[in-house]
Amino acid sequence: MKQLALYLPCCYPNEHQFFSILDIMEKYHVDVLELGIPVANAHMDGKIIQNSHKQVLQQGFNKVYLNKILQQIREKYSFKIVLMTYKDGLDKYHLLDEKMDYDGLLCVDRMITLNDFPSPIQLYNENISNITLQEKLKNNRLFAYCMSGVGKTGSFDHVPTNYIETMQRIRKHSDLPIYVGFGIKERKDVAEVFKNGADGAIIGSYFVNKVKTSTLEEVAAYIKDLKSID
Q: Backbone phi, then psi, for 184, in 5-degree steps?
């Protein structure tokens, strides 16, 4: 069964609306919440995600608050929880030191290994060397995150097809499920990456912007439509 993962910064745009969105995700059986852990300088992301991080931080987000939110998510919902952050987030919130309850961890500017955490997730793109690809796969669990193409989040007008070759390279060395992200927006994009062999689709900047600009009813209709794709 194909999987859908949606990225949302923790407590964006505020705690009440955040949980309203998670209620919708649960209702329509979204498979993975990619939970953005906010940092002051999300330099590898585009403006949409950078601004969402700043908004959450301005609300007083901290480690104690994160622990509370993670507990509430685990108690209320059935989807998997994958934290996405930077090295600054690892250090600031002690993500590797605390026994927080989540399923996977992705750090965009530091490679998390099995020595650090039992279920790391790695990023792959067409520029990765075979040596680095194989090293990452040895330290990858849950799914491999395949970028559709090289670039910052939110910077794509369409979904590149570079990921097709990257997936082929990954599958020479691993049977991990492969999720494709970056540039995916609408139903046609999700259907296309599934058609091309991806096991899952990840929607980030576009979903964050939809949460910002749409009603809950519109967000629900969007998610329901995506989950109807075979």
A: -80, 130
* Mean pLDDT to the nearest integer, 80-91: 97
What value, to the nearest 5°, has the Cα angle with vertex 148 and ends 143 and 216? 80
Is the CB of residue 121 less than 8 Å from the CB of residue 152? no
What is the dihedral sign for C-alpha 116, 122, 128, 129?
Answer: positive
CA angle 203, 185, 75 (to 5 degrees): 30
Distance CA 162, CA 148 (A): 6
In angstroms, the CA 169 to CA 166 distance is 5
In 3D space, the residue among 36, 80, 72 whose CA is nearest the CA of residue 56 turns out to be: 36
Number of structural domains (the chain) is 1
Tens digits of residue pLDDT in 152-178: 564 567 888 999 999 999 999 999 999
Residue 168 is predicted with a pLDDT of 98
- Which domain, by its residues, includes 123? 3-227
Helix, strand or coil for residue 124? strand
Q: How many CA atoms lie within 13 A of 48 on its CB side?
A: 20
Measure the CA–CA gap between 10 and 101, rounded to whole angstroms: 14
Structure tokens that stand for 111 in this block: 């490679």
Q: How far apart are CA 3 and CA 219, in angstroms?
A: 18
Q: What is the CATH number of the domain that holds 166?
A: 3.20.20.70
